[in-house]
Amino acid sequence: MGRPRFAAAFGGASLKRLLLVLVLAACSATRLTHLRGGWRSCHAADPNAVECGGKQVAQVECFQPGDEACGALAVRYADGERVFLSRPAGFEPGQEAPIGPPTAIRPELASDGSMIWFGRPQRRGEYWTVFELDTGITREVDAVQIFKIRERDPHSMPLWVAQAAAPR
After folding, report:
1. Which of 51, 67, 138, 164 has the greatest count of CB atoms below 10 A from its CB?
2. How would you classify the pairing of strands 157-158 and 137-142?
């Protein structure tokens, strides 16, 4: 029964460590929406839109933009689904009352439209949230990783600059 030499042939303990690392990585990421296909030849377009192959596939919504921040941050996909990345409890689009303190600090959209990253006020710049638009996965990264992301993408688009999201 079993194959006692199988694990040894693949490094035994190192294979177990690799499996543990993969499980931990999977646990640290959260899927907010389903996987979307057709995200080739994409780019960020004004205002806060993502276009792939000449078609708009997503619109990033910054509700009540402020000083390098958004009161709430969402992505509205072409199929009509809206995914909130950050919002205060009880917030709904079209709400007239001011949101209060922002929930997304310095949100940016990658120039290729692949991801959004932002800080959260309670994290104080130590950790950032990264959301991958095509996979729907969100994960936490440290400030060094954000620096590297920005270094690789000097043409990212700040999301708080464009006009506030229109309620739909």
Report:
1. 138
2. unpaired
